[in-house]
Design goal:
The chain is an alpha/beta fold. It contains 10 helices and 11 strands. It has a 6-stranded parallel beta sheet with strand order 3-2-1-4-5-6, sandwiched between helices. A 5-stranded mixed beta sheet has the order 8-9-7-10-11. Helix 3 links the parallel strand 4 and strand 5. The longest helix is centred in the N-terminal third of the chain and has 13 residues.
Length: about 260
């Protein structure tokens, strides 16, 4: 008989609530919600006991990060060194190459990443084995309000707020963009993880007042072929910076880690 994965969720927000509720209702066979870690008192809002991070490491064999890049930076290595596996939703933290190297080298716990709001990453990883991808471009389009950041000057903010059509907010590499938009561009880091190179992935962030769906377009090419993936998601009503589909990508990953048959890996 297979072992049931004992799961702790870090973060009880737009992602954590959906994932935790599904686990508590038994909708992921082979995985059980043991506890929730959050810096706010949740009371009866969570369907499992609220625990400290240390308690979660003792009680769980798999931690799901659903609370932002800061958690990955602060706790990622400690989770893995304790022997607990870690499933990361906030892949943007891994644009810090030193952190990425330490995380990938840490153990005995294993680190995994969700595909999040995009598809095609499995195919890009497969294509990588054929040979390097010469050009990879990601264009992310979101509502202007979800892209506003403290570092923006008044001129840029005014352009975004008064826009009647698409406005290019920033262009750069997958190394640069997630640092500037920590809650909105995990997709850029995920594409870079699939491709294996932060600097190969060129990213354009677009604000569009008509972007009722968050849109990601990935275009990649190399000597062996060309690839294009486009997705458009409804934003999560509780957290418009996150697409509604993201917690379900986490649940798909959990099902695979729990050993469910029929999973596309």
């Amino acid at each position: 008989m297979s072992t049931v994965r004992k799961v702790g969720i870090v973060g009880w927000g737009a992602i954590g609530r959906v994932v935790g509720t599904a686990l508590a209702e038994g909708r992921v066979g082979g995985a059980e919600l043991v506890c929730v870690v959050d810096n706010r008192p949740l009371g009866e809002a969570a369907p499992a006991r609220q625990a400290t991070f240390e308690e979660a490491l003792e009680a769980c064999d798999l931690i799901v990060e659903a609370a932002g890049q800061g958690v990955v930076r602060e706790w990622g290595e400690r989770v893995l060194e304790s022997g607990t596996d870690l499933l990361i939703a906030s892949t943007g933290a891994l644009t810090d190459e030193d952190l990425a190297k330490r995380m990938l080298a840490a153990g005995p716990g294993r680190v995994y990443f969700t595909s999040g709001a995009v598809g095609g990453l499995d195919l890009l990883q497969a294509a990588r084995f054929l040979g390097p991808l010469d050009e990879v471009r990601l264009t992310t389009t979101k509502l202007p309000s979800t892209l506003e950041q403290p570092w923006m000057d008044e001129e840029l903010l005014a352009r975004m707020r008064s826009a009647t059509g698409p406005v290019v907010v920033m262009t750069g590499t997958a190394r640069e963009i997630p640092v500037k938009f920590p809650k909105s561009t995990n997709v850029a880091a995920s594409v870079a993880l699939a491709v294996g190179d932060l600097d190969t992935v060129r990213v354009q962030v677009v604000a569009d007042p008509a972007a009722h769906h968050t849109r990601h377009v990935i275009e990649a090419s190399g000597a062996h072929g060309a690839y294009r993936f486009e997705v458009a998601h409804l934003p999560d009503p509780g957290n418009p910076a996150t697409s509604q589909v993201v917690p379900y990508a986490v649940l798909r990953s959990l099902a695979a880690l729990a050993g469910q048959t029929g999973q596309i890996l």
